[in-house]
Amino acid sequence: MVTSQKQRALRKFQRNFFAHSDAAGRVVRNETNDTPQPTRQEQQRKHTSFEAESSGCLAASSVYYTIPHSPTKHQFEESDLWDAHNDEFDFSSLNSFNKDLCDTSTESHAQKRPAGENPLSVWTSDADLFLLEFLRLEGHGDFAQATCFCGEANPVFRCEDCHGTDLMCHTCTLCVHERQPLHRIECWNGTSFQVTTLKALGICFQLGHPVGIRCINPKSASNNDFVVLDCNGVHEVGLDFCGCESAQPHITQLLRVRLFPSTTTDPKSAATFRVLEYFQMLSFKSKASVWEFYNTVARLTDNTGIRVLKNRYKSFLHMVHEWRFIMQMKRCGQGHHPGGIKKIEAGTCAVLCPACPHPSKNLPVGWENAPLEFQAGNAQEKSTCSSHSAVNLADTRASRGLAATGAGTIDCVQHNFKRPCSVGDLQKGERYINMDYLFFSSMRSSHGVHVLNISYDIACQWNKNLWSCMSAFPHKYHINHDEKVITFLVPKFHLPAHIARCQTRFSFNFIKGVGRTDGEAPERGWADINPLATSTREMGPGSRRDTIDDHFNDWNWKKVCAMGAILLRKYKAAVPEAEERARDLDKFEAALDADQLAGWRTDIEMWELDRSLPNPFEVKAGATVTQAAVHLALSKTEAEEIERGEHMSLDDDVSPLVLISSGIELEGQQRRVELEGKSIGQHATDTQKVKILQHINTLRRRIDTWSRVQLLYMPCVSRLRSSHDITSEDKVHKINLFLPSSLPSSFPCDVHLLRYEWDLREAQANDALSDLRTVINMTYHLYKYKDTFVRGQRTNTHAQGIIHSAESRIDAISVNYTAARNALVMLASKLGKNDDWRRILKPLDRTKDAVPLKHDEGKTLGQQNISWIWKMARVSNNQEEGLQDSLRVEWCKARARAHRWEEEVLLLREEMRRVLAFFEWQAGWWDKQGARCQFVSHEFTEGALAYAHRQATLRRRMSTHFRSLWEAVPSWTPAHVAMPLTCTP
Question: Count H helices, E strands: the chain?
Fold first, then answer.
């Protein structure tokens, strides 16, 4: 309530202050009347300061500075400033508000920003100024009485595209725009500016000659009705072709002034290279269609509909299509090929992934003899191993009459590049024949790669008949798969939808050599390309495919440009992860039996060499833990505890060891009675009350008997407890037994008793951890059984009751362990023990430590940590079959996690080396392209050499830039770029 009152008071102050500021601003701007000032010869700048006074009030003082509305500067004088307001605001009720706000509402405090950090609110106060300036530009402005450059009076023309708003006469307008025939001109008609064109003023664009030189035999283009599309509008221009004897064809004359003709025969329109490049880049980023862009340009020309423009939409469609094709040919180096465009080979236009292995390009000499390592990966989309209908029916809604219902791609799974010859149409869903063709087509560019890791959402089914289906394709699509190491995998995100056997057989997490690849590369690309469907779905097949190719090439190029930062980010994340997973594996292995561990290691290494052997990641124990079995195990445990506690008898001749062990058992019975009392609640039945009272009375009598014997060995206890304490204590679980560990340090105690209790407490803690692991493992399987098999309210309620019993058992064991460890802490100080035992028996956090082996804490499988209770020494001594099987599987997974992260570091280093080597190879390739083809003239040769040199220089600059990024990481050195392809097993 108090906080809300203070907040309301603060908002009231803010409203008062802003009203005060606004009123002061209106006074300074001379806006107190309703008549707006046509011009302002001065500008005002306000400075507000706050001062706290002794009365508890805050004084706000605003000072305004007068600045002349002129570029010239002068020194301020005292008359240029005055104190406009000095009003006081009472903040006495808010004195404590700031402190409360900082302490209790950090989020609200963080959201408040100084005025300078909120530019919109600052701009709002000057919005009127902007509006006035916009209106001012509709007139002559500063040039009402000006003369033209040439001295002629009353100039009436100005250009919207030239810098400034200078007015020019007719002659100067023509002279200035002789080289700018596509600028937009306005003419003053006495009351306002109206749009005109350079063509109407008499400018004619002469082709085939330098600017300013007229052709002796000009030929008017399209009866003086030529249209040019540019970023600023659709222009009707006067254009003359050269008609001299040595004149070039019309399309050549247009191209040489950066105008792209709409046709090759008697063109009547053209588009500037600038507008085509602009639209291409805009479509890459926004996926805007040609229709949307053309209408945008048309509306820039005339946004009223009064002026009827010549429609060049279809012509612009053709020009965009042709522009995309020519730019692809140019960028892939086909213009330097002696055979020209006709000799282009399949996949030549694709932008290659520089980090993937390319023999003779970025692989070192002798790479074929290196150990089999990460070399390639490919992926695609949809379905589970349980149902083929997800594949057969995908993308088939409303498919009647459609030539294609979707598209499929083959990607570089590690770097998310679209591979050459890897994009195709889908006719009726994602059928195998479509994906087979795309896969074999893509593999034509990877014949030199020996290791293929193939990721597909339904790889578990798709790989079964892949090689038999290959025989139906032409021989050029065949793969010599017998000489390659081929592994089929399922992407990580799609893997949980598969059956359990597929989840271990086709998992990226368990396969040697793949690092931390997830296989989901194609999924990430669809978000970028899907918006293009609105414009491509009505295109013809050729235009549609060329457009998609162009967009995918741009996607690849963006990946190339970002490769330096991407690999750097991955490398920085992988190095510490690899170190942490290695430490985690070492701790886990230290807790396992050496002989048993050696056998597990042999099994998994053999499976990595021959995956037809039994999978070590699969649970061998075939019997499923049922509810009945769990219920029986809990009942047996409870019966044993009752037997140990309820039927224990004490003799008069009790040894010290029996005394301490009996005391520890009585302490445990106290905790059980306490938990039993809490479990029955406040509304217990008479039967429950009788049962708990019997337990309490029995325990009280046993404590009384034990305490009498205790006085024989620990007489100092008589000073801490009277003879009536046990019978007078209402709550039996609160009776202090005063075992040696709980005695005050000033009280003496026999060292033999301290040692006895130390040994017993240590055994108690270890037994508690052993029981804890067993019950946690049993509870994990119980949850799995419930999720898989239990259906219906009745069975779910029954299952939930058993789970609750198991969880209660875990809570009780955790309490026992904590009590035993606390006693060890007290005994260690009395016996002078070192801290070695603390490294084994660590503090137990019920929520973080008492968790199953497969507890993920919201992390991915490759980032999971194992609780310390599973990494203790002698953890493998428990021979319970299910636990040993779980330990083996979890050790295999821990080993896989450590190895995958280690491989990721090595893979990233190798990819960095490949990227730099690929850039060097590509730069050399471009150096050779310049002189590859013999051109008909020096100008063509010079242009080809210049373009090749520019491309080579660009690759070397990118290589230098990437190297500088990576060298900033201490663990990466230039030596890594020369390392061979190796992988630590």
Answer: 29, 17
Query: Encoding tokens for residue 913?
Result: 């080396």
3-state secondary structure 661-692: HHHHHHHHHHHHHHHHHHHHCCCCCHHHHHHH
10 Å Cβ neighbour count for 418?
A: 27
Q: What percent of the chain has pLDDT over 90?
A: 18
pLDDT at 276: 95
- CA dist., res. 555 & res. 553, Å (int): 5
H or E stretch at 409: strand 406-412
- Contact of 58 with 91, CB cutoff 8 Å: yes
What is the SS3 string spanning 214-280?
Answer: CCCCCEEHHHHCEEEEECCEEEEEEEEECCCCCCCCHHHHHHCCCEEECCCCCCCEEEEHHHHHHHH
Cα separation, 502 vs 489, whole angstroms: 9
For tokens 């919005």, what's the residue? Answer: 127
| The two structure tokens encoding residue 245 | 């004897």
Question: What's the gap between Cα 192 and its chain centre?
Answer: 55
Closest CA to 903 of 460, 412, 375: 375
On whether the CB atoms of residues 256 and 205 are closer than 8 A, the answer is no
For residues 711 and 717, the answer to whether their CB atoms sit within 8 Å is yes
Q: How far is CA 511 from the centre of its chain?
A: 24
For residue 768 the two structure tokens come to 């508690």
Continuous segment of H or E residues that includes residue 486: strand 485-489
Instruction: Label residue 153 left, alpha or beta by phi (over 0 means left) and psi (-120 to 50 means alpha).
Output: beta
Are the CB atoms for 296 and 312 separated by under 8 Å? no
CA distance 648 to 661: 12
Give the mean pLDDT of 463-471.
86
3-class DSSP assignment, residue 359: coil
The residue type at 280: Q
- Are 394 and 429 a contacting pair, CB within 8 Å? yes
* CA distance readout (Å), 52 to 13, 46, 63, 109: 15, 20, 17, 21
CB 86 within 8 A of CB 48: no
Q: Say if strands 42-52 and 57-68 run parallel, antiparallel, or are unpaired.
A: antiparallel
Distance between CA 347 and CA 421 in Å, rounded? Answer: 5
Which of 947, 950, 958, 884 has its CA nearest to residue 918? 958
C-alpha pair distances (Å), 714 with each of 721, 740, 750, 827: 12, 9, 8, 16
Residue pLDDT, tens place only, 373-405: 444 444 333 343 544 444 544 444 555 667 777
Q: Side chain identity at 501, as an amino acid letter?
A: R
Q: What percent of the chain has pLDDT over 70?
A: 75
Q: Pull the structure tokens for residue 18.
A: 């802003």
Q: Are 341 and 563 in contact (CB under 8 A)?
A: no
